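[Q] Does anyone have a clean structure-token version of this?
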Amino acid sequence: MTKKKPLISVVLPVYNAESTILDAACSILDGTFQDLELVIVDDGSTDQTLDRLKSINDPRLVLTKTPHQGVVAAANKAASMAQAQWIARMDADDISHPHRLETQWKFAMQNKCDIISGLVSITDLSGNPVQSMRRYEDWLNSLTTHEDLMANRFVELPMVNPSILARREFFLDKCRQGDFPEDYDQWLSAFESGAKAGKTESLILDWRDHENRLTRNDARYKQGAFDHCKRHYLLSGPLLNIRKVILWGAGKTGKSWLSWLLNKGFEIPYAIDVSPRKIGQCIHGVRVISPEQLRTIYDAEIPVLAAVGASGARELIEAFMENLRCIKGKKLWFVA
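[A] Here you go.
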């Protein structure tokens, strides 16, 4: 008799995580959604990670060990072993909340989404909130609709990788090796393909920050690598076959984007800023105008990149541009 395939396969690549792997794995297996398998690929751990995992007595655990090749190879291996048509990602140092998968599954079915995340809490390994990450956490949790996620995807990945549930095709061999953050690349590629994304408005994951986390210690997660990745997908996505762009923001971040756009051959008719000190200046040969000046001359066919980071600035720009029929995620994108 053929064994019934699970509704969800959870994939978890792990390397030397003996102190956290049991909590991570059990947070999935002990959750309210039971029709799953947990596929764990031990990427050649040299500590007690594998022994800890072997202590779990649950037929839904699928465990294999490979030579150490890195997170990309381990993640792809786990996805290739997954049986379900829906795959969820999990990391070895995080904690899924009990209703995570149940909530995401219901959201996916009700909203016909391809990629689903949810709200996260950024904590240390003891479960205490990381105050230095509070603004970032608030930003992540403020973006829940498909339109919000698409418009902000070039700021940073607006969905935490180990919180994602997605259709199988967005996982199989989609994690690429390179000098870039593999998760950001994976999901920017999925967004570019036209996938519909969304978030449940409930807390689903404790994303645990610590000094040994891979994203803190690998060159692939440095700012320059993120910039290269987001600019690659801007050129192949929203800016494909576009030669004229308006830039909102003439501060430090805006100037960096302005230089890049000009170097790529884009025509920038003007930049926009609210600072009286900057309005009227020419930066790299581009005139800076005020939002009120833009109101009288804006051409709705020209896309807008908003390179601002001040608290509340993106929301104000979104509202202003919406009045000019420039809609976020279609003609307006936020960058950082």
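[Q] Thanks! Anything notable?
[A] The mean pLDDT is 96.
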